Amino acid sequence: MLLSESTSQESNVRIISIVGMGGIGKTTLAQMVCDNTRVKTHFSKIIWVCVSSPFNEIRIAKAILESLTNNTPQLIELDPLLQNVSQSIIGKKFLLVLHDVWTEDYRKFEQLNNALSRGAPGSSILVTTRKETVAKVIGTTNNNMFRLGLLSDEECWSLLSQVAFSGRSSEECKNLKNIGRGIAKRCNGLPLAAKVLGSLLCFKNTREEWESVLESELWKVEEAEKVLFPPLLLSYYDLSSLVRRCFSYCAVFPKAYEMSKDGLIKLWMAQGFFGEIGSRDMEVVGEESFRSLVMRSFFRDVQYPTWREEITFKMHDIVHDFAQYLKEDECSVMEVK
């Protein structure tokens, strides 16, 4: 579908949507598509833009134009930005990923779609969204809509156990297996929940510790989309108070923001999280805090480039929502235009 040419009934740009609830694996699937060798060969340009809410047409157009031209656009109004996108896209077969779309207002999408229509036949827009109505409003046909279903309990257990049993003896695994299967059922079919819980259980060595996870009161948390929050809360409260502060601070960053490890540690230091110790000691504590959050799956997409370049990472959308949930009584986050 993605690699086939447009039919005579389709416009130059095909719209394909991946639909499913938070934590189901939409981002992972979209990343796998973009990393596929055949996809890279088929499209002359692959562009990834995190949309989220609100749908900011100017920010999205700037991100697309920057990817097309490898230059940061200085334009600040939508019309000239879209004109430049339209000119830059002529004759190019592109794949544009619009990640985490929420708006159901077609007018927000229409101008952008018109600007992209000058791309070469076979170009595609790949949308990830939690809402099927969004996919339909922006023009996705049923044939081009992929609805991701929940994992079975057995699949959740397979994913969780791969992480939780890493490095354990067969005897240990046998002793913890029944409790682990009970915990896997708590994942409600969500891969992210299985991964987070598996990362937590890596640090639990006794049956009593595993049973405390299974029987925790935190499973009773109720609120919208918070089906994923109990596993995150279990891992969060298993952290030291210092590392909890470091994690919740990350709510100040935008969704899908690529953070620098060294930059973040400096911000933690500036906030006074590490107390009155020497700067070198602070950096060591910051490194330990960062590693702890990586091992618990709070940070993802960690990039370890050459020694001269910075280590970068991101947070999953749901993990970012969770961080903002923790901070909602302490601060508010505003997008500055």
TrEMBL record:
GO molecular-function terms, A-Z: ADP binding
Keyword Ligase carried by entry: no
InterPro entries in alphabetical order: Apaf_helical (IPR042197), NB-ARC (IPR002182), P-loop_NTPase (IPR027417), WH-like_DNA-bd_sf (IPR036388), WHD_DRP (IPR058922)
PANTHER family from the UniProt entry: NB-ARC DOMAIN-CONTAINING PROTEIN, PLANT BROAD-SPECTRUM MILDEW RESISTANCE PROTEIN RPW8
Signal is among the record's keywords: no
Cited SUPFAM superfamilies: P-loop containing nucleoside triphosphate hydrolases (SSF52540)
Annotated protein name in UniProt: NB-ARC domain-containing protein
Start and end residues of each Disease resistance protein winged helix domain: 252-323
UniProt keyword terms in alphabetical order: Plant defense, Repeat
GO biological process, one term: defense response
Domain NB-ARC: residue ranges: 8-168
UniProt source species: Cephalotus follicularis (Albany pitcher plant)
Stored Gene3D superfamilies: Helical domain of apoptotic protease-activating factors, P-loop containing nucleotide triphosphate hydrolases, Winged helix-like DNA-binding domain superfamily/Winged helix DNA-binding domain
